[in-house]
């Protein structure tokens, strides 16, 4: 019927045709699933499973993956997986790839993705991927970057269980379509964060415009974490690098310390606050600039920059206040703000015994400059303040801590360093220069006084609390005052209880004018002992001797009063100060007249070292009253 040649021709043409027919009849895109799984698993570094694969051919083919699943890493439960996507569709511009080897995806749609984020410890989580690296010794060559036209997320859900952050949250994620505009990203979160209830809502621009540095990405975030409220609104010029931002950040809450879990920077306890300013990211720093607001009863302004770096970020801040209440800043120096409950002290002790929290000191490196133009508050004689604070690896340097008082000042320089086993090693010095007595008296009910106080103090110690440091300290104290009002000063500095009792025991009138006061004391292992204490008033000369034990908070001190003008009734009187700081006692002890017969009365019995004269002159200036007293005593 057919010649051999015809039969051979039919065989060579029919077999390929039959193969094509059979391929069309039985073709399945599922044959490529193992290839897709291998490629994706190699790229992510963990198993990826694909339930189904289909391709809808057309001018712009559509690739559809169903039942896509990305497994958890080893050590985590198999179910639920890290991610499960019931349907993922990608439109592919095949002609662009065939002609120019460009990967163009005009549209990606992710339907009902469910992502499970787990974190059990520092660095131990299921969302860190060991992406494939180039072979050692051969540089990785980046492949062609895909161009994506639009990304749509339908009914996405993220469940986060992050133990280190105390977080258990559900986040609903989807894109919202708007006529004639790119779809916008919308996310809404509920649950707990830092063991506090959290609600958050984010409305951003198109997801893919994140990659377009020249296209500002709009963002609005409203967040409430417990009582803390955050609002962020504006645009970011380069979203992936968070640079060129025009963002307005508003914060309010009862305590800045509650921001620590949100920011990763440890903040001390504060009174209620309200702050606003601009937020951006540049030069590797998150910057909060043009900040203005209130902290308790104080206004606060300035700039703060945080440089994320390993486990200990670097914080640089330049802050200022027109008016500040020091009570609002108590948390920054280890105290408790006025609106917070004060810690109860045990055993009737007076000195602060709250342990220094060294882990908090090591949580960040801090460089702070702070200026306060006016200091206000109850019984506050200070005018202004300047602080330069540096904390590096837990070591604190205060150089300087300066307070202005009238025409005078109090200048301190302090260094604190953590020691093995806990606590701090401290070293500091304070200089008092022409501290205005009238300012000190002005905040008392007495409201009188004049003259100036000057001198210096130094201390070197170690301990876990302020009470422990003072109880172990070594150093010294030198003070001098020319002029002023003794009665008001004693009541102000000693407290009404001991002040009035001491004045009564001394037999001094309500207003005793001071010619000169000089004190030179030594501190050894927490015991403050007298080298010289001398008070020259209009009518009397008072000298002091004894010890003040800061560790045990006990007084063992004696004041001797001698009248300048001897009369029959003007017998020398010793005033005994005994007891504890919390419960002191003051009682007179009249010295027998016979024991004083033949004794030199007055300056000749008192030795004052000339070495303290420069300190006196520095603190109060060249005042003839104190200089004369020192020289006459010699």
Automatic annotation (TrEMBL):
Pfam families on file: AsmA
InterPro entries assigned: AsmA, AsmA-related
Region annotated Disordered, chain positions: 332-353
One BP term from GO: regulation of protein targeting to membrane
AsmA domain segment(s): 187-531
A GO-annotated cellular component: plasma membrane
PANTHER family membership: ASMA FAMILY PROTEIN YHJG, DUF748 DOMAIN-CONTAINING PROTEIN
Name of this chain's protein: AsmA family protein
Source species: Teichococcus coralli
